[in-house]
Amino acid sequence: TGAFTIAIDGPAAAGKGTISRAVAERLGLPHLDTGLLYRAVGARVIGGQDPVAAARTLDASELNEAALRTGPVAEAASRVAVMAEVRDALTEFQRAFARRPGGAVLDGRDIGTVICPEAEVKLYVTASPECRAERRFLELRARGAEVTEEGVLADVRARDQRDSARAVAPLKPAEDAVRIDTTALGIDEAIEAAMAAIASRW
Ligand code: C5P
């Protein structure tokens, strides 16, 4: 098929989102931030719904909400993300997106390992926990959230732990993933590193 799938995985606040959006824009490909699916389910669970029912009835129109970008929703997302039935209910939507003619960029935790194991390019984007917490702290504070650096670091560590330790689709690099550590990279350098890795496989 003509689909060229780029799978970008990694822990929270490593720079996946920024890199994915930039790469998709440069290549003219559609981009799916798969964390939004789990966040949308998490938001519905905070609203009192059953997680599996929420995942099965999720609608793409729910993914654009700014309300999904909060700490409590991220926390709820990582709690529902351990449930196999929730993940199963979200799989086909992601695979259909990946099969779009011409290709697509998907970012998440298990894109290269579970959702799109045949992806033409797999990137695993990381950074130290301290660096990721600092970036997330600045981002949340810029949006007016009342957070502390220590609190954000604790949240990042808790989410890393839950995402890596779960039995179903744990966070880990695919064997054939190109690793990009953004700890010491600026945004432009991280994007260039990603573009270079993609170009080598295109
Ligand atoms: O990437 P983001 O921080 O928006 O993801 C929120 C949560 O959703 C993650 O902490 C993770 O538990 C879950 N997730 C997942 N698989 C994905 C994307 C996100 O388990 N592909």
Automatic annotation (TrEMBL):
Classification via InterPro entries: Cytidylate_kin (IPR003136), Cytidylate_kinase_dom (IPR011994), P-loop_NTPase (IPR027417)
Q: Which GO terms describe its biological process?
A: pyrimidine nucleotide metabolic process
Q: Which GO terms describe its cellular component?
A: cytoplasm
The chain positions of domain Cytidylate kinase read 6-43, 62-198
Q: Where in the cell is it found?
A: Cytoplasm
Known catalytic reactions: dCMP + ATP = dCDP + ADP; CMP + ATP = CDP + ADP
The first-level EC class reads transferase
Classify the main location.
Answer: cytoplasm
Q: Tell me where the transmembrane regions lie.
A: none
**Keywords, A to Z?**
ATP-binding, Cytoplasm, Kinase, Nucleotide-binding, Transferase
- Keyword check for Zinc-finger: no
Family, according to the entry, reads as follows:
Belongs to the cytidylate kinase family. Type 1 subfamily.
Q: What is the protein's name according to its record?
A: Cytidylate kinase
Q: Which organism is it from?
A: Histidinibacterium lentulum
The opening ranks of the lineage are: Bacteria, Pseudomonadati, Pseudomonadota, Alphaproteobacteria, Rhodobacterales
What is the name of the gene encoding this protein? cmk
